[in-house]
Predict the 3D structure of the following.
Amino acid sequence: MKALIRVPILALVGLMGGNLAVGAEVDTASAEHGKYLVMIAGCNDCHTPAYSINGGQTPEAQWLTGEAFGWHGPWGTTYATNLRLQVRHFTEEQWVVYAKTLKARPPMPWFGLNNMHEADLRSIYRYLVQLGPAGKEAPAYLPPEQKPPAPYAVFP
Ligand code: HEC
């Protein structure tokens, strides 16, 4: 019964909504694809607090808010950036150029981001915007000679 009623209502919404409704739908789908990408491309593993040690159970509200866990090696100590705060500094166009040309210190797999298709980069941007700002900035980069505060991992 329900299914029978739903079909004419959807048709009506489609007629009234025109382009606007279609546009909004595409954006949501793109952001949803961005969510899928950050899950399978491993962005959460480093950029989301405790994600890789709790089996991906960190609530989405905290996703991509950066980590205070240091990665210490010959390059110094790096911290995975809070991407939800960072994305506010970019328009979508700027983000695409930035992600295509980004060079970062280990263990950030920047070469992966450089090679991502433009449509996928746009999806990640839209997902970050949809999530909105949260959390605080990750600790600042430290030079090699400086011993970082715990917790941190040492390479090699
Ligand atoms: C193995 C851990 C790791 C993974 C996986 C990872 N990142 Fe990173 N990311 C880092 C670290 C650490 C930094 C900081 C590098 C630095 O200070 O130079 C960083 C930096 C960045 C930056 C640059 C931020 C800035 O300050 O300019 C962007 C953008 C970024 N990551 C996006 C992503 C995206 C998108 C993904 C998934 C496709 C991802 N990262 C996967 C660890 C990681």
User: Anything to note?
Assistant: The chain has six helices and three strands. Strands lie at 70-73, 76-78, 152-154.
